[in-house]
Prior knowledge:
Layout: E1 3-16, E2 30-42, E3 63-64, E4 67-68, H1 69-77, E5 80-84, H2 90-98, E6 104-107, H3 112-130, E7 135-143, E8 149-153
Parallel strand pairs: 1-5, 5-6
Antiparallel strand pairs: 1-2, 2-7, 3-4, 7-8
Amino acid sequence: MIYRVEKYLDGFSTCFRQWNATHSHCRFLHGYAISFRLHFAAKSLDEHNWVWDFGWLKDPRFQINGLTTKEWFHYMFDHTVVLSEKDPALKTFQDLENQGLLQLRTLPYFSCEGIAEFVLNTLNPMIQKHSNHRVSLFRVDVMENNRNLGGVEIDHECA
């Protein structure tokens, strides 16, 4: 039996661009109120009969670069400009950040799918470690609006 739960996180105003979408207006800076769906799975429940305690978001034992998970989501995605590390205009955006005009975050590559992969690769090892490999974050979906969603899922539900 596989037990599953899902956590929905929203309220992140994020600006970005797809620099290599030369065929589309997506190459220009634009923003959305993005949200996340985090999908957890386990083959057994914990002592509370839960797959995963959502209190982990604020729990100081779960640190990413000195931030709780909730703080990390806000740091990465709330009122930020998120770009690909390969964006040819990255230096310009770094200059704007140095002038205090924006909060810049970079990812290996940018798209909803790229954000989802980044979040999954950041959070899943921590979740597996703290659950003694009982729980897996097996899927992350990123919604840039109520019509567009991209995501990533590991090829097995419980690592």
